[in-house]
Design goal:
The protein is of the alpha+beta class. It is 19% helix and 25% strand.
Length: 118
């Protein structure tokens, strides 16, 4: 299904503002013919800065900068998730909290949730 105005690639990592708020990635799932947003994703300012530096290095034909020690060798460093309308962003590294959120289930409990690709 086409969604006018939504980016279909993550080739850029620039901060995008919409109505004065930071835009986030919405994970849309389908259940029994109905679509819903299961969770939202954003990157911390530190992760976004590293992503931008990596993209710039790639354009210049240089090796990417190393991640900071705080990243701890995990690719999930600097990612945050939350439920739509939720107040708290949860660090992706906190699997006890974020793990159940990322396991999409149909809101009515009937059927299997399927990720909708843009």
């Amino acid at each position: 299904m086409d969604r006018p105005g939504l980016p279909t690639t993550s080739a850029t990592c620039r901060l995008i503002l919409r109505d004065g708020k930071e835009a986030v990635r919405a994970y849309v799932f389908e259940c029994n013919g109905k679509e819903y947003v299961n969770h939202l994703e954003r990157f911390t300012p530190e992760r976004r800065k590293l992503m931008e530096a990596t993209a710039e290095a790639e354009r210049a034909g240089k090796p990417p900068p190393p991640p900071p020690a705080a990243a701890g060798g995990t690719v999930m460093w600097g990612q945050e998730f939350k439920k739509p309308g939720g107040a708290e962003w949860m660090a992706a590294s906190n699997l006890a909290k974020v793990g159940p959120l990322l396991q999409a289930k149909c809101p009515d409990g009937q059927g299997d949730a399927t990720l909708v690709e843009p």
